[in-house]
Amino acid sequence: MSRMGNPGGGAGQAQGNVSEQAQQVGEDLRDLGGQVRDAAREKYNQLSDSAREYYEQGRQKAQEWEEGLESYIQEKPLQAVLIAAGVGMLLGLLWKRS
Question: What does pTM read for this prediction?
Fold first, then answer.
């Protein structure tokens, strides 16, 4: 009977429900967006840490290789000069052909 006494009440209530649902969907989307942002930030930090570790390992390997090369040159300077000359000639020949 209350429906008949207030013909516009049903439409107003339906509009209120839609508005509440829209607000809830908006809140859910904001929450989901925050979760995605947090997950992306965490993944970025993990990748950044991994890249930093790989860079540091590569830098250490390069330093070790450089130190080994320097000690080889100091121990056997004539062989080092001959090897460098041979590599230079080989690169010169390859460059000349191309």
Answer: 0.50
